[in-house]
Write a structure and sequence with these properties.
Blueprint (H helix, E strand, L loop, with lengths): L3 E12 L2 E12 L3 E5 L6 H8 L7 E6 L5 H6 L1 E4 L11 H11 L6 H10 L15 H13 L5 E5 L7 H16 L3 E6 L2 H7 L2 E6 L2 E7 H5 L2 E8 L2 H9 L5 E5 L4 E6 L4 H10 L4 E6 L3 H10 L1
Parallel strand pairs: 3-7, 3-8, 5-6, 6-7
Antiparallel strand pairs: 1-2, 1-4, 8-9, 10-12, 10-13, 11-12
Helix pairs in contact: 3-4, 4-5, 5-6
The structure holds adenosine-5'-diphosphate and magnesium ion.
Length: about 300
């Protein structure tokens, strides 16, 4: 196991009568891409705000890099909490020079070139910010978080408002950055986004931690398959007498069954056929993480 780069213990936050965070525990290992996943209002932004020192918690504590030196630690964290304010009539380079100045980076020229290259905007470095597409603006924002070469990137809903192309570009970018041994923490309400880029995930609901683990642990080892037959009673009996198959959801006409990950739809078909039952319907259900996520947050 890698070293723990962020430890969160019992964090709570109250806004008047809204319990935004309720005794949240998190552990983030160095070098992982950690997803904070939950529906809107589940407390993701509040969590990141507290961890970056811009919101004060009611109780609980956290520690970056195993210490409590907030000023030093903050320099090692690049954060994108909301769409940053770049100057529309200044070029990408000029905007980053301003950020570099705020971050007290000396001789930033080569660093600016390198982060622009990283986010695929080097060719557009002299274009005015206002001429950028939404996706390019977001990539410039990520470039600005990379200035100062932070060990950790914290991104809140980095693909919000982007079209599919823009989303794919950000996803590629996050995966590329992660290869450089950085730890990345991403908050998102979009399961697909988390599943595609993260190695670890924590699922939040109403400010509470529901589950935390590696994507593989959370996805589980199951496939979901929709089956139906003319004889649903016999089907149910066959399933009941087999311990590798469980009913996930039942309706009069069909069942969603849960089977081992290595059991394909073909295997399921063969299995019922061997028991003397012909299926009238056989269909792979949506991805299991999606299924579980919807179950968890409903
Ligand atoms: P998420 O980022 O997961 O969408 P937030 O952390 O923004 O969730 O919000 C968590 C809860 O706290 C929500 O119920 C939200 O309405 C509430 N909340 C967030 N910020 C404030 C605030 N400044 N004042 C009052 N309530 C807030
Ligand atoms: Mg949010």
């Amino acid at each position: 196991m890698n070293s723990i780069i962020l430890q969160v213990n019992g964090l709570s936050k109250q806004y008047k009568d809204v319990k935004a965070l309720d005794n949240l525990d998190l552990q983030v290992e160095q070098g992982t891409v950690f997803g904070l996943l939950g529906p809107n209002g589940s407390g993701k932004t509040t969590t990141l705000g507290i961890l970056l020192g811009v919101i004060k918690q009611k109780s609980g504590n956290y520690s970056w890099f195993g210490n409590n030196d907030a000023t030093e630690n903050r320099k090692k964290i690049g954060a994108l909490l909301e769409t940053p304010n770049f100057y529309p009539y200044l070029s990408a380079v000029r905007n980053l020079e301003i950020v570099a100045k705020i971050k007290n980076i000396d001789n930033p020229t080569s660093q600016i070139e390198s982060v622009l290259k990283e986010v695929n905007l080097l060719e557009r470095k002299n274009s005015k910010f206002r001429t950028f597409s939404l996706g390019m603006k977001q990539r410039l924002a990520i470039a600005s978080t990379l200035l100062g070469d932070p060990e950790i990137l914290v991104l809140d809903e980095p693909t919000n408002g982007l079209d599919p192309q823009g989303i794919a570009e950000i996803r590629e970018l996050i995966l590329k950055i992660a290869k450089n041994d950085k730890t990345i923490i991403i908050a998102s309400h979009i399961l697909d986004e988390i599943e595609k880029v993260c190695s670890h995930v924590a699922i939040l609901k109403f400010g509470k931690l529901i589950k935390q683990g590696t994507i593989d642990e959370i996805i589980g080892d199951e496939n979901y398959i929709i089956v139906a037959s003319k004889d649903m009673i016999k089907m149910t009996q066959i399933i009941d007498s087999n311990e590798n198959i469980d009913v996930f959801k039942a309706s009069e006409r069909e069942l969603i069954i849960k089977v081992d990950k290595d059991m394909t739809a073909e295997d399921v078909n063969q299995f019922f056929f061997d028991k003397g039952l012909v299926l009238s319907q056989l269909k792979v259900y949506t991805q299991s993480l999606e299924t579980q996520f919807l179950e968890i947050i409903k």
